[in-house]
Design brief:
Layout: H1 2-18, H2 26-32, H3 38-46, H4 49-53, E1 56-64, E2 67-72, H5 73-86, E3 89-99, E4 103-112, E5 115-126, E6 129-139
Parallel strand pairs: 1-6
Antiparallel strand pairs: 1-2, 3-4, 4-5, 5-6
């Protein structure tokens, strides 16, 4: 019996040493728990349109106040930059999020120097990378 335990211990050690350990990329680990990528939240908190645009799809459906259209990634970055220049972020808090393995959504409150806004966005996973396909920023009704 002692030899069998020793045999299985050696076998287990051998198998674990030759099998590669898989570590998922950071954004996939976050998505496993239905969280949005941290870079998106950070970009909103700091008002960094360039960092946020890194997550934009090639074309993005963008609704910011009275601006509503499908824009290229570059155009959308400029529109978001203009918004952040006029409305300096003070805080950003995700209030709801969910999705599945192929897409995620989030609803958040963005408090700025000129009021509070409700933010909605849809993220789709393409080639294991998250891309924002839709982004809406609208004035909170209470303001």
């Amino acid at each position: 019996m002692k030899q069998i335990k020793l045999y299985f211990t050696v076998l287990l050690f051998f198998i674990s040493s030759i099998c590669p350990v898989y570590t998922a990329p950071k954004h996939l680990l976050l998505n496993t728990f239905n969280n949005i990528p941290q870079g998106i939240a950070s970009a909103f908190k700091t008002g960094n349109s360039k960092a946020l645009a890194k997550f934009f799809n090639t074309n993005i459906e963008l609704v910011i106040l009275d601006n509503e259209d499908v824009y290229s990634k570059q155009q959308a970055e400029l529109i978001v930059q203009s918004f952040f220049n006029k409305h300096r972020p003070k805080s950003f808090k995700v209030i709801s999020q969910g999705g599945n393995t192929k897409s995620k959504y989030a609803i958040a409150n963005l408090r700025t120097s000129r009021g509070t806004f409700r933010v909605y966005f849809l993220i789709k996973i393409h080639k294991k990378e998250p891309y924002i396909h839709q982004l809406t920023i609208e004035a909170e009704e209470n303001d």
